[in-house]
Amino acid sequence: MENLLYDFYALFTERSLLDDLYDEHLLTSLTTTLVVFVLIGIGAYYFGMNKVRYAKASTWLLVLGSSAVLTMIVAIVTCSQKADQEIPRRKGHPELGRYFDQGGSVFFGFGFEMFLLAAVLFFILSLAVKNLSTNNRKIPF
Q1: pLDDT digit string, tens, across residues 92-137
Q2: In the predicted structure, residue 141 carries a pLDDT above the cut 60
Q3: Bond into 140 cis (ω within 30)
Q4: What is the DSSP string of 63-114?
Q5: Any idea what the Cα angle at residue 131 is, between residues 128 and 136, rounded to 5°?
Q6: Residue 121 to residue 64: CA distance in whole angstroms
Q7: Distances (CA, A) of 49 to 36, 42, 44, 46, 121
Q8: What's the rounded Cα separation, in Å, for the pair 15 and 56?
Q9: Is the pLDDT score of 26 beyond 60?
Q10: pTM for the complete prediction?
Q11: 16: closest CA among 137, 104, 100, 82?
């Protein structure tokens, strides 16, 4: 599973950060977090908020944005916490550096990529689930 996720994230993530995420076995957990937040957002909008007053594009965008922002925050915080641990790449060889030594801008870029992935996944799943809802089936457009 990690190898498949590595190949997928290699399309748009910086190689050094991706290698660190792979070595620390975080790709699966971050992807699971992304899918869980999107599914919670889909369930909340199409089943929890299944009322006529919520059947608006603005409410749909708010739920999409909140699940995507939560995913982004988790990705950035995870990378930052791993950087704060200062884990050496290889014990006894400090010249090789530490894991997650790329910096905050790389972490923010990765978080923004996770934001976009969550938004796209939310949109795709929304298209699939919207016909199950009685009041919210006209959203998205």
Answers
A1: 656 667 767 777 888 899 999 999 999 999 999 998 888 887 777 7
A2: no
A3: yes
A4: HHHHHHHHHHHHHHHHHHHHHHTT-BSSTT-GGG-BTT-S-HHHHHHHHHHH
A5: 110
A6: 10
A7: 18, 10, 6, 6, 19
A8: 40
A9: yes
A10: 0.87
A11: 100
